[in-house]
Design a protein that fits this description.
The protein is an alpha+beta fold. It has one domain: Orthogonal Bundle (Arc Repressor Mutant, subunit A). Strands 2-1-3 form a three-stranded antiparallel β-sheet. Strand 1 and strand 2 form a beta hairpin.
Length: about 100
């Protein structure tokens, strides 16, 4: 069931500006990584050309960091089902 709030309810919930506890604050990189790890429940499996499992990563962010690339690049390769770096297959495993 999808629930949507009325405009009146949204105004009551909203805390603009100084009333918002996160106003003018930013998350540290460590906190951003913790949020990312906890919210993304898709494991990434890395296979060689012979379809042999090489390694399992806990999510796209960790995998991208290890390969010094972006999670968007990883996502595109998963969707395309093409070789990554002409050597590897990348697959999503949804927990």
């Amino acid at each position: 069931m999808d629930k949507t709030h009325t405009l009146e309810s949204l105004k009551a919930i909203s805390k603009p500006g100084l009333l918002n506890p996160m106003f003018n604050k930013t998350y540290s990189l460590k906190t951003i990584n913790k949020i990312s790890l906890s919210s993304n429940k898709q494991n990434i499996e890395l296979y060689n050309k012979d379809n042999e499992l090489i390694k399992i990563y806990i999510n796209q962010v960790v995998f991208a960091e290890e390969l010094n690339t972006t999670k968007y690049s990883i996502s595109r390769h998963i969707k395309s089902d093409k070789f990554f770096l002409n050597t590897y297959y990348i697959r999503n495993i949804i927990n």
